[in-house]
Write a structure and sequence with these properties.
Layout: E1 20-22, E2 26-32, H1 57-62, E3 68-74, E4 78-80, E5 87-93
Antiparallel strand pairs: 1-4, 2-3, 2-5
Length: 97
Amino acid sequence: MPGLYWFNPITWKIEKEQVTVVKETEIGTIESVDGGGRIPTGRLLGDAVECNQFQDAKAFLDNGGMKGPQIALLRPVLIGRINSRAFIVSKRDHKNQ
């Protein structure tokens, strides 16, 4: 997030990344790199978890988010600060699907 932050360079590392933008013609799918457990056998997707459209990785983990593909999609015209170490975002053109 924009702002002034103080950090200890020994324990923290800052990396700049692009903001995730889902255009009107796209749908964003999410895969969690980490979670409270794996998705149970026989299921393909993890449960929906309240985590501000995957912008809050701590809330995702605290609310029982599961490792693997997620049922929730990123809405078009979402401009989000999604942690690329916690989530993999794939964008697909929904008009051709």
